[in-house]
Amino acid sequence: MERQPGEALTLTNAYLVFTEYLRQKSMVPVKRSIFKGMFAPLVRDAFNLGLRNDVIDQATNHQTAGWKGLRAVQVQEMAEKGSNS
């Protein structure tokens, strides 16, 4: 995750990125409810952003839970950054 003004990260998209990361590491994914309970406090600590319920999901154009001003670094980008370090 990284701060990105004007961006919005839905809880669903954060969970999808997380489960893809776990899959690539051959790890078992956690239930979404468990993810929400552990991830929301981490985002608050790291970025001082609380989970909101007024984030617009671009795919459905409906309000959902998420964070404004935050974006997910895609799994591919994480792999590329890791190989360049």
Give the SSE map.
Elements: E1 2-10, H1 11-24, H2 32-47, E2 52-57, E3 62-71, H3 75-84
Antiparallel strand pairs: 1-3, 2-3
If you had to describe this structure to a student in words, what would you say it looks like?
It is globular, with a radius of gyration of 13 Å. It has one domain: Arc Repressor Mutant, subunit A (Orthogonal Bundle), CATH 1.10.10. By secondary structure, it is an alpha+beta fold. Helix content is 47%, strand content 29%. The chain starts with a strand and ends with a helix. It has three helices and three strands; from the N terminus they run βααββα.
- What fraction, in percent, of the residue positions are helical? 40-55%
Q: Give the biggest beta sheet.
A: 3 strands, antiparallel
Shape: globular
How big a fraction of the residues is strand? 25-35%
Low-confidence stretches: none
Strand order of the largest sheet: 1-3-2
Secondary structure tally, helices:
3
The gyration radius over C-alpha positions equals 13 Å
Mean pLDDT: 87
Indicate the CATH class.
Answer: Mainly Alpha
Q: Roughly how many Å apart are the termini? A: 18 Å
Which superfamily, in CATH terms, is the homologous superfamily?
Answer: Winged helix-like DNA-binding domain superfamily/Winged helix DNA-binding domain
What structural category characterises the helix and strand content? alpha+beta
Write the element-wise H/E pattern from the N-terminal end onward. Answer: EHHEEH
